[in-house]
Amino acid sequence: MPDLSRRKFLAASAGAAGLLSGAVSCSWPDLMHAAQERPLAEGSGVLVIVTLYGGNDGLNTVIPYADNAYHDLRPQLAYAPSDVLHLDDQLGLNPALKGLEQVWKDRKLAIVRGVSYPKPDHSHFRSMDIWQTASPSEPVPSGWIGRWLDVTGTDPLRAVNIGPVLPPLAVGEKSTAAALSTSKEMESAVRFAETMDALGADDPGDTPAMASVCEAYRATRITDTTFRSIKPPAMKPRSLAGQLGMVAAAVKAAVPTRVYSVQLGGFDTHIVERGVQQPLLQKLDQAVTPFLKQMAGDKYGKSVVLMAYSEFGRRVKANGAGGTDHGTAGPVFVAGGPVKGGFYGEEPSLTDLDNGDLKGTTDFRDIYFELLSTTLETDPTPSVGAGRRSLGFL
Fold it and tell me: Which of 109, 112, 161 is nearest to 289 (CA)?
């Protein structure tokens, strides 16, 4: 079976989901094949984007536990100072974020405070569109990573979304990120590769003709033992931990991808927020912390930078249903080996509000500017426009 036929088979087995979503579909074997043909250069920056869909409550994530206004405006929802993981004498992390607390202590977690954009919009859809396209003033048809793809080459695996449906951030006018199949389609491709391995195995009882057939099967597989030993992580691929497990395996295998996109939803906490947000933050912590640990110990992973953001924060005052309504500014986490840990951006006031909302102090495009210029080593202007600046966390 020639290699071309094998690749056609893999393309077909990657599934119709990618085609239906408009994405360029890729499979796990495709990534491993790319790692052999054009491996990631050691020292290349890799950006991992974690999108928290639903509008995460930043005030109960990075908690102003020493501010009386926080407790006055959230009498049932506020965390007691004794429950918070103290970062300094004013702010602390949600108790679910114990792993990230250690990353902070290791000086590898930057917390950018008060992140928003001009004239905030309370709509999930419009606000997420603004974050993903980096265009607050008017809708545009391309995402900020999509525009980076448009101007930086032709390799279809430069950016990969874990999952079949591309987020707007990964769509350009000429190029898109690839969509990695994560379910039955991916399992089918892996089973095919394993079958080729089994059929190509020698047996002492083989006749010369059978030995020749086995050799032909082996010719359909890449002979490098590293490639053949790398399998997708054995975990639920749709969980955040599963998504980041795939990213970690791909980075360690030297897949030539510079941007990965993963996601976690469920943060629209209008009711019983404590019972919803804290378990979600625990999922975030239990996925991100081991991922960062793996990356810190790998020659390719040491240049990985992870950013976690949500489309907006929540209003300062709790509502009557034990939750919070759509707000504006919130914190962004940036973590990894190249990160200079600490606080960046000014902490928003809880008393000087804009009709009950926090006033943003940091433009999200400045975060993108630094990630593009430092991690991806590219001109940020096509993605974020002129007049932006670095914040200094890298």
Answer: 109
Residues 6+ apart with CB under 8 A from 275: none
Return d(Cα 117, Cα 111) in angstroms, integer: 17
Helix count and strand count (H, E) for the chain: 14, 13
Structure pTM? 0.85
Task: Give me the architecture of the 26-180+235-384 domain, per CATH.
Answer: 3-Layer(aba) Sandwich (3.40)
Question: Rounded distance, CA 141 to CA 389, Å?
Answer: 24
Rounded alpha-carbon distances, angstroms, from residue 59 to 88, 160, 319: 15, 31, 14
Is residue 36 within 8 A of residue 190, CB to CB? The reply is no
Task: Give the three-state DSSP class for 239.
Answer: coil
Residues contacting residue 111 through CB under 8 Å, at least 6 positions apart: 62, 87, 104, 331, 332, 333, 342, 343, 344
Q: Are residues 359 and 119 in contact, defined by beta-carbon separation less than 8 angstroms?
A: no
Would you list the domain boundaries of the chain?
A: 26-180+235-384
Separation of alpha carbons 352 and 299, rounded Å: 47
Cβ partners under 8 Å of residue 217, min gap 6: 1, 196, 199, 200
* CB burial readout 17-56, b (16+ within 10 A) else e: bbeebebbbbbbbbbbbbbeeeebeeebbbbbbbbbbbbb
Output the 3-class SS for 65-105: CCCHHHHHHCCCCCCCHHHCEECCCCCEECCCCHHHHHHHH
pLDDT in tens, the chain (394 residues): 333 333 332 333 233 233 324 567 899 999 999 999 999 999 999 999 999 999 999 999 999 999 999 999 999 999 999 999 999 999 999 999 999 999 999 999 999 999 999 999 999 999 999 999 999 999 999 999 999 999 998 898 999 999 888 999 999 999 999 999 876 544 554 554 555 566 566 667 666 655 655 555 455 444 344 444 456 666 566 899 999 999 999 999 999 999 999 999 999 999 999 999 999 999 999 999 999 999 999 999 999 999 999 999 999 999 999 999 999 999 999 999 999 999 999 999 999 999 999 999 999 999 999 999 999 999 999 999 999 999 999 9
